[in-house]
Amino acid sequence: MTDLDRTEDDMVADGSTGTDRWKALDFGPPAPDVDETEPPVLIDYRSGDRVAVITLNRPHADNAITTEMGALLTKVVESIAVRTVVRAVILTGAGDRAFSVGSDLRQRKSMTKEDWLRQRQDFDRTLYTVRQLRKPIFAAVNGIAYGGGSELAQSTDFIIASENATFGQPEAMLGLAAGGGSPALLPRLLPRGKALQMLMTGDPITAQEAHRLGMVNEIHPPGQLMAAAERIANTIANNSPTAVQAVKRAVQLGEGQPIEQAIAIMMDAHWRSAVHPDRIEGIGAFNDGREPTFQDPDF
Questions:
Q1: What CATH number does the domain containing 252 carry?
Q2: Catalytic residue among 151, 230, 281, 291
Q3: Run of H or E residues at 35
Q4: pLDDT tens readout for residues 3-45
């Protein structure tokens, strides 16, 4: 047994040692041998297929991410990427307790080093696919978002949350350095010192603190979160998808660049939209006092 395996064994222990170490995390290992009859990821198309809702669907396990769930999530996002009618994507979790607590630690308990590395590569592909999606995608965090679950939310364009949501990076508590993007993403969403404190201590923050610090855009009562998410998604979907995707790309490519380089990237996106038929339709609709009818993007 390796040191890594011993760490994982300790990590999924039943608490018989009497430690208080894990109490603040408010979750434990998934129950063993639960018969899962539904897919671990669900996809639902709404508003005339223009809004896609992706749901992490293992509520009995606080939507912990298994190898199988990660692979299916990648497949779902890739399928949305080429479905031109989709204009906005919502990512959420099943149930009212958790968005996702990250990797399924019971599954990891019995992994060999090779299994671990293979899963890590699979999860990297999942997160990369989310980050690189051209369409707008945002997280509706309905409860606990820890570890890879928090990193998955951070990988989207923005986050809204329920009042009972919490965000945490407990990897260091478990003997790991965070590896799903939070060391790079969290300091862009929070003050650097707060991000480092979360990564070093494993202490979670509430939705209210995340909102105050700018990580979360909006907070809603749990029962109203998805209605709010759909309102946002429909507002985005009613705009020109070509323009929305162009401005998203300009922000992504321009972030961290010298100002004139960022402006040049922006202007490239602007000129592409200026010669697109949606510009004629949008300005015409404004002058006619009617709703515009924007084209689906080419890709």
A1: 1.10.12
A2: 151
A3: none
A4: 444 444 444 444 445 677 777 677 666 666 677 789 999 999 9
